[in-house]
């Protein structure tokens, strides 16, 4: 694994440099200069202490080629700094000016059909274009030279959401870069032929010069899945290289400041493999937009659980979220009263030390005019702005109480996440297009919360050996080395839960032979003590076909069902298929979920997909077989709780101070008892008696206690 840069957190302009960062993307270039003083007045009122500045300001900074005009930016930074507001300064390269595209249309990306992508939105450039890189790096150097010694600039914000719009580029530049990427990866063309299985459909290549991009090949022609997966990795690596080049250009001139770029971690997105990116930033930061509906809080916590693992347990930064509605979905719901503050505090409860929004002032024109902001169209006399001020005060109280720098307590259970498996589940040559690794991770996360267990979400590539339980839902592409690590984990006493489509292929998209799951040349099957000869894809909605198959304990599978046989005398069957649909498929009484001892540990196989309710039901059934969470053995841990509450603990690194965070997951008030410490935040929450609190819908309680 690449060595990680050391953790470096941006200072605030407070006397100690410490405190929870609070603010948002600040785009004063959208407004007349007079608005800036008013902005600063309102920022102070709202306790804003930091802003991300100049993200989309390239055309203002370099209005014509080579003509740099910094006066406006100097003025804005000076005013902010004088008001005690620190600047997370952008490289300003996220959107190039029209003059650049006009002069160099060759930097525009090409889609898979060979169409040139048009300029006029954002990120309309090829990650592999040397011409674009030259312009971007020149701007980076100019920014660095100008602001290297500016004490108000306390962090660098590189690009913006790399890969949001130019993740897939099929240009000739990309083709040449892909060929050399493949050469670096495989060394010899035989290795590539072997990995891609090119014996199929006459795809043998004689040299790296014959390697192709997975461009559109007519009709519904299918792409070689191994080639597609490599193309995904390549796209990730090209953008990461681009980020590194920009970062290095600035760092050379301006060493010592912390660098970051905003990730896009959310449980239905996976543009990048952030397990790699996290090594290249000084602090990790994320843009997270809420999912409307019942999953709102759980989804946020699940995304954040991955963020906290990417940060290796260190505090991390919410670079963007919304005070209320976004504007980029077909229907954009606003937040309910209380959710503005609750969501921000939920991020804090999950390990964030910085709460920023997109954006400070709601635009009055342009594509994002209907996206919410900290100062809405209605102005300061508005619920949203009052909520922002209330949040600022609460965050300041948490800073004063010493929350900043405390770390989220780990759970005992890790759900393993792999960006490569998420990409693999999107592959169009799989037996079902309904597979989703991320959604299964989220269902497991929520199913566990439903029975009062909290899990971490940890990248497969990281070290998860300290957990008691690991869960692999739909880790479709499981490399041999990871299969070995999993088997070793079980061998030495860990409990492993393997989901129905985990280990179906390896990282080259090769299917292991001898039965499913084939990962590790049979090692996964051996660990599980089962074998599946065939699987059945459900949900086709074909006439007179059962929509699902029931299990003997009342659960239902609706998507994917493996025909499982036990292969070890000590494999125990936890539940079988039963009922009319099972009979229809001649499955009655055959194993659906099994458990098998392996070394000092245990391996549980879930042979079919389950929804969140059934996962919760299953975890309840398995509770005797699963190690107890620590809080049932250690009095002060955070692992289980009333299932209606999300309970997390942040501790100081010396263990002396802890903050217990309680968030209501339900729509009804929830009363919690036996609560210790001093309340620092009681938001939509009332003290009922000593140690007893009633937390309302969207309420949050944060207690501080000392050892
Ligand atoms: C992000 C982006 C912001 C803004 C925001 C709206 O993806 O970084 O600039 O567009 O979405 O939700």
From TrEMBL:
Keyword Hydrolase: yes
Gene Ontology terms, MF aspect: beta-galactosidase activity
Assigned GO CC terms: beta-galactosidase complex
Catalytic residue list: 161, 320
Gene3D superfamilies referenced in this protein's UniProt entry, alphabetically: 3.40.50.880, Glycosidases (3.20.20.80)
Residues annotated as binding substrate: 122, 160, 328
Keyword Mitochondrion carried by entry: no
SUPFAM superfamilies reported in the protein's UniProt record: (Trans)glycosidases, Class I glutamine amidotransferase-like
Domain of life: Bacteria
GO biological process entries: carbohydrate metabolic process
Catalytic activity as recorded in UniProt: Hydrolysis of terminal non-reducing beta-D-galactose residues in beta-D-galactosides
Membrane-traversing stretches: none
Protein name: Beta-galactosidase
């Amino acid at each position: 694994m690449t060595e990680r840069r050391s953790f470096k957190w941006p200072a605030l302009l407070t006397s100690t440099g410490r405190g929870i960062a609070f603010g948002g993307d600040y785009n004063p270039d959208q407004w007349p200069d007079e608005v800036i003083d008013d902005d600063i007045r309102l920022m102070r009122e709202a306790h804003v202490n930091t802003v991300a500045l100049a993200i989309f300001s390239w055309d203002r900074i370099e209005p014509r080629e080579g003509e740099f005009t910094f006066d406006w930016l100097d003025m804005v930074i000076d005013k902010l700094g004088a008001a005690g507001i620190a600047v997370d300064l952008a490289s300003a390269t996220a959107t190039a000016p029209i003059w650049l595209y006009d002069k160099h249309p060759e930097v525009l990306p090409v889609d898979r059909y060979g169409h040139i992508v048009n300029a006029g939105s954002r990120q309309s450039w090829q990650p592999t274009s040397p011409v674009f890189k030259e312009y971007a790096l020149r701007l980076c150097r100019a920014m660095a030279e100008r602001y290297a010694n500016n004490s108000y600039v306390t962090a660098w914000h590189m690009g913006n959401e790399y890969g949001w719009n130019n993740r897939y580029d099929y240009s000739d530049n990309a083709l040449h870069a892909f060929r050399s990427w493949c050469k670096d990866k495989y060394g010899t063309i035989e290795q590539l032929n072997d990995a891609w299985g090119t014996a199929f459909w006459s795809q043998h290549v004689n040299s790296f010069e014959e390697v192709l991009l997975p461009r559109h090949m007519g009709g519904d022609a299918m792409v070689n899945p191994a080639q597609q997966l490599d193309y995904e990795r390549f796209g990730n690596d090209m953008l990461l290289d681009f980020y590194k080049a920009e970062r290095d250009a600035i760092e050379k001139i301006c060493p010592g400041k912390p660098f970051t770029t905003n990730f896009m971690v959310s449980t239905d997105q996976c543009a990048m493999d952030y397990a790699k990116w996290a090594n290249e930033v000084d602090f990790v930061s994320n843009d997270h937009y809420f999912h409307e509906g019942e999953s709102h809080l759980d989804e946020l916590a699940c995304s954040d659980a991955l963020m906290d693992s990417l940060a290796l347990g260190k505090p991390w930064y919410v670079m963007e979220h919304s005070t209320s509605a976004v504007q980029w979905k077909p229907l954009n719901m606003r937040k309910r009263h209380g959710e503005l503050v609750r969501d921000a505090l939920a991020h804090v409860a999950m390990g964030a030390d910085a709460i920023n929004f997109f954006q400070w002032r709601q635009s009055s024109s342009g594509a994002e005019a209907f996206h919410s902001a900290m100062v809405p169209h209605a102005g300061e006399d508005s619920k949203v702005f009052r909520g922002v001020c209330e949040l600022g005060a609460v965050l300041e109280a948490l800073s004063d109480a010493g929350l900043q720098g405390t770390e989220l307590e780990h759970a005992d259970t890790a759900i393993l996440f792999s960006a490569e498996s998420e990409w693999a589940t999107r592959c169009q040559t799989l037996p079902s297009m309904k597979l989703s690794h991320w959604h299964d991770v989220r269902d497991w996360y929520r199913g566990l919360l439903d029975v009062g267990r909290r899990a971490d979400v940890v990248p497969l590539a990281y070290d998860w050996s300290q957990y008691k339980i690991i869960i692999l839902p739909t880790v479709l592409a499981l490399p041999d080395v990871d299969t070995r690590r999993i088997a070793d984990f079980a061998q030495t006493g860990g409990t492993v839960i393997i989901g129905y489509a985990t280990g179906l292929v390896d990282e080259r998209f090769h299917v292991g032979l001898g039965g499913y799951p084939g990962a590790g040349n049979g090692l996964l099957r051996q660990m599980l003590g089962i074998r599946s000869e065939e699987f059945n894809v459900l949900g086709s909605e074909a006439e007179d076909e059962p929509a699902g198959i029931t299990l003997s304990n009342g659960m239902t599978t609706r998507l994917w069902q493996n025909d499982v046989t036990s292969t070890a005398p000590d494999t125990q069957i936890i539940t079988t298929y039963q009922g009319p649909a099972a009979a229809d498929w001649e499955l009655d009484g055959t194993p659906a979920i099994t458990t098998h001892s392996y070394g000092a540990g245990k391996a549980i196989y879930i042979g079919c997909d389950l929804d969140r309710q059934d996962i919760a039901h299953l975890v309840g059934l398995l509770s005797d077989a699963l190690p107890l969470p620590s809080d049932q053995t250690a009095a002060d841990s955070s692992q289980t709780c009333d299932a209606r509450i999300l309970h997390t603990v942040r501790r100081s690194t010396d263990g002396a101070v802890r903050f217990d965070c309680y968030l209501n997951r339900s729509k009804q008030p929830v009363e919690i008892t036996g609560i210790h410490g001093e309340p620092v935040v009681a938001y939509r929450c009332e003290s009922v008696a000593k140690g007893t609190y009633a937390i309302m819908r969207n309420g949050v309680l944060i207690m501080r206690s000392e050892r």
